[in-house]
Amino acid sequence: HVQLVESGGGSVQAGGSLRLSCAVSVSSANDYCLGWFRQASGKEREWVGSLDSYGRINYADSVKGRFTISKDNRKNILYLQMNNLKPEDSAMYFCAGGPNAGCDRYKGRGTQVTVS
């Protein structure tokens, strides 16, 4: 069983930065894919990026070059550093985890990001 708890959301002006954190509770976090999804009001869920169990990180084109995923293996915390934020980045951001083929099997409750 995997538990994911996000934090760090908030409101920021366009061009600003935020860092989201996801506390991961699982016996072997390094064996899982961990990632981030987002869902804006009235829109479908969108994959933001993920870190697979081999250490490979991939990003959606919409955030590439602006967002960075990292992980503190000692603390089992997954981060999403978001720079140069745009209004279209406004959404509820969810931390997700699972096997590499199903990285969204488990999801947190989300944290809201609003960019104005």
Structural write-up:
By secondary structure, the protein is an all-beta fold. The chain has no helices and 11 strands. The strands form 2 sheets. Strands 2, 4, 5, 6, 9, 10 and 11 form a 7-stranded mixed sheet that branches. The protein is globular, with a radius of gyration of 13 Å. The chain starts with a strand and ends with a strand. 29% of the residues are buried. The model has no long low-confidence stretch (mean pLDDT 94).
Précis, in short:
This protein is an all-beta fold and 116 residues long. Helices cover 0% and strands 51% of the residues.
Protein topology:
Elements: E1 3-7, E2 10-12, E3 18-25, E4 33-39, E5 46-51, E6 57-59, E7 67-72, E8 77-82, E9 91-98, E10 106-107, E11 111-115
Parallel strand pairs: 2-11
Antiparallel strand pairs: 1-3, 3-8, 4-5, 4-9, 5-6, 7-8, 9-10, 9-11
Radius of gyration (Å):
13 Å
Q: Main β-sheet: number of strands, strand sense, barrel status?
A: 7 strands, mixed
Q: For the terminal residues, how far apart are their CA atoms?
A: 37 Å
Order of helices and strands: EEEEEEEEEEE
Mean pLDDT: 94
Query: Residue ranges: pLDDT <50 for 5 or more in a row?
Result: none
Question: Beta-sheet strand percentage?
Answer: over 45%
- Count of alpha and pi helical runs: 0
Query: What general form does the structure show?
Result: globular
What's the number of extended β-strand segments?
A: 11
Counting helices, strands and paired strands, the structural category is mainly beta
- Summarize the amount of helix as a percent range: under 10%
